Automatic annotation (TrEMBL):
This is Hydroxymethylglutaryl-CoA synthase. The active site is at residues 79, 111, 233. Residues 177-246, 255-355 form the Hydroxymethylglutaryl-coenzyme A synthase C-terminal domain. Residues 2-164 form the Hydroxymethylglutaryl-coenzyme A synthase N-terminal domain. GO terms for molecular function: hydroxymethylglutaryl-CoA synthase activity. It comes from Oceanobacillus indicireducens. The lineage of its organism: Bacteria, Bacillati, Bacillota, Bacilli, Bacillales.
Length: 390
């Protein structure tokens, strides 16, 4: 029985910042942003959007009534959770109107947790073939104004329906994974900002990739020539390229050119959205599938997932016949075209508008947020969500 991704869609907030203008405002050479880290735009979440609403808006783009009935497991990967106790997946389950006889769980391991959700979903479907699983990666990356990490911020969510006989990508059983207790990126409970050792984190990202790639080759006997494309977790789009370059000497000249070209295709959406932590790898996969018209059913895609702290995994999938029919290219084009660029002054004002630290009752102006699902305010320490189309 084949198990894999049957549907995939994403959502990003309607605001974005131009990275050239941000660089100029910060007195930085724009090439450091557009070439050095490979980012053109940065999605910006207003106070009315959090991980839950981003996830709901992404999922609403792909699920239908059959999915609502058959989804009996919701796995929500995020490092932007809104509660130390209540799972973001429970809020999401309600907002989407899913089958009440379902499990709903939030997962955490930095940027890796959506991949953990994918692997758990495979096991669930193997035991319950008629079920479907909703896997979400949703996050808001915030490092602060005029900080070293400001250029690697972003916001968005990717939603995936995992099922038997997937129409998009059948996930193969072979995968290799590696865990090591390191402090490359972390955010203590008492801190509103993350702590990062940037150089060390970049080194470990590549080290973990090389480790799981070597293990994968050893276990399967496969080589780069068995892959049409490799997709990477991309906190910024140059990061995955750095990892890819470490193994390109294993490929033929034509194979190397193919992998590099497909990598460039796979980061087009990420260049416009920025870092979305748990969803970044899957946004890259989506970009590859929607922006590349040369891939065909039967071709193998490799995926590298990395979550600081740290866990890394390399796994693979086979594109299904007519997979293009399961994509939402025009919806995503419309999403990008409908976004509004904000000035640096507007960006800083939107960025500084945050929820009260003590949970004071608040009502937000919903007129400025066109999303179907939004956060309307806080009442009695409870977040109040609204689904305009439910």
């Amino acid at each position: 029985m084949n198990i894999g991704i049957d549907k995939i869609g994403f959502y990003a907030p309607h605001y974005y910042v131009d990275m050239i203008k941000l660089a100029e405002a910060r007195g930085i050479d724009p090439d450091k942003f557009t070439i050095g880290i490979g980012q053109d735009e940065m999605a910006l979440a207003p106070v009315t959007q959090d991980a839950v609403t981003l996830a709901a808006n992404a999922a609403l783009r792909v699920i239908d009534e059959e999915d609502r009935e058959k989804i009996d497991l919701v796995l929500f990967g995020t490092e932007s959770g809104i509660d130390h106790s209540k799972s973001a997946a429970v809020y999401l389950h309600h907002l989407l109107g899913l089958n009440p006889y379902a499990r709903a769980v939030e997962l955490k391991q930095a940027c890796y947790s959506a991949t953990a959700g994918i692997q758990m979903a495979k096991g669930h479907i193997a035991l319950n073939p008629e079920s479907k699983v909703l896997v979400i990666g949703a996050d808001i990356a915030r490092y602060g104004l005029a900080t070293p990490g400001e250029s690697t911020q972003g916001a968005g969510a990717v939603a995936m329906v995992v099922s038997k006989d997937p129409k998009l990508l059948a996930l193969e059983n072979e995968s290799t994974y590696f865990t090591n207790d390191i402090m490359d990126f972390w955010r203590p409970l008492y801190s509103e900002i993350a702590y990062v050792d940037g150089k060390f984190s970049n080194e470990q990202y590549i080290h973990f990739f090389n480790t799981v790639w070597e293990k994968y080759k050893e276990q399967t006997g496969r080589s780069l020539e068995d892959f049409s494309a490799l997709c990477f977790h991309v906190p910024y789009t140059k990061m995955g390229l750095k990892a890819l370059r470490t193994i390109l000497d294993e490929a033929t000249e034509s194979g190397s050119e193919r992998l590099k070209a497909n990598y460039e295709t796979s980061i087009q959406y990420n260049r416009k959205v920025g870092n979305i932590y748990t969803g970044s790898l899957y946004l890259s996969l989506l970009s590859l599938l929607e922006q590349n018209d040369r891939l065909e059913g039967g071709e193998r895609i490799g995926l590298y997932s990395y979550g600081s702290g740290a866990v890394g995994e390399f796994f693979t999938g086979i594109l299904q016949p007519n997979y293009q029919d399961r994509l939402y290219v025009h919806q995503h084009e419309e999403l990008f075209n409908a976004r509004k660029e904000v000035s640096i002054e507007e960006y800083e004002e939107i960025f500084e508008e945050t929820l009260s630290a003590d949970g004071s009752s608040t009502e937000f102006d919903r007129a400025n947020d066109p999303a179907p699902v939004y956060l309307s305010g806080i009442e009695d320490h409870k977040r109040i969500y609204v689904n305009r189309i439910k």
